[in-house]
Amino acid sequence: MRNKYVIGNWKLNGSLQANESLVSALKASIQAKPGATCAVCAPMPYLAQLKQLLGGSAIAWGAQDASRYDKGAYTGEVAAAMIAEFGARFCLIGHSERRALFGETDRIVCEKLARVKAAGLTAVVCVGETLEEREAGKTEQVVGKQVGAAIAAQGIEGLDGILIAYEPVWAIGTGKTASPAQAQEVHAFIRATLAAKDADIAGRMPILYGGSVKAANAPELFNMPDIDGGLIGGASLQAEDFAGIWRAL
User: Fold this and answer.
1) Residue 8 forms beta bridges with which residues?
2) Contact 61/39 with Cβ under 8 angstroms?
């Protein structure tokens, strides 16, 4: 049986005061579950605060990105090993906003994946298609290329232990959501792509859905056979909503 995950992505939001208030509410409402993990991924400056606030709780923490470089003259970059020093467990890689706004290619994403793995962090590799690509019938082509790049870079054995998050770009921050059937179809395709290389690894790979997940639609989404939880954006900033999604696992 695959482990389940609900991971919040705060994106470019937060302050010391707001974080403390949100985390306090989350700790009061999120209880540990066997075989399931809850986590939040915050902006880099707040990792130390999360370590202080969440240490010993049922909630893990992580970063939203990491450098493809280990060290050196790369002003403004943050290495995966630095993130790990703050007790982080997870690191998002290749989020659609990183790909679209900051020009991250599959090659860059795979370089970052290697650094994150080397630092002992659990990578959450994000894949997904735009609305234009979906309407052109290219969903499997686009997602297959993104997953295939990771397989080519790491080998299928090198992906054992990571998480994949399918996030239809057209459903992020728009209020639109892929229907459970639409999401399941892509999740099943991702698992089949992995299974073509190694069925055992594919069978235990957690694949999360990330696309305007709310407490109201989470139960139906999470009931799909190949959806193993969610990567949560806006709703992760509201304790009641995020806790409701967690309870839906």
Assistant:
1) 40, 232
2) yes
According to CATH, the topology of domain 4-247 is: TIM Barrel (3.20.20)
User: What is the residue type of 147?
Assistant: V
104 is catalytic: no
Catalytic residue among 97, 129, 167, 187: 167
Helix ranges (H only) for the chain are 16-29, 47-54, 80-84, 96-102, 106-118, 131-135, 139-158, 180-195, 199-204, 218-222, 239-247
> Catalytic annotation on 95?
yes
State mean pLDDT over 5-23.
98
Helices and strands (H and E) in the chain: how many: 11, 8
Q: Which of 85, 95, 111, 220 is catalytic?
A: 95
Tokens for 161? 């232990």
Give the tens place of pLDDT for each residue, 38-55: 999 999 999 999 999 999
Mean pLDDT of 141-151: 98
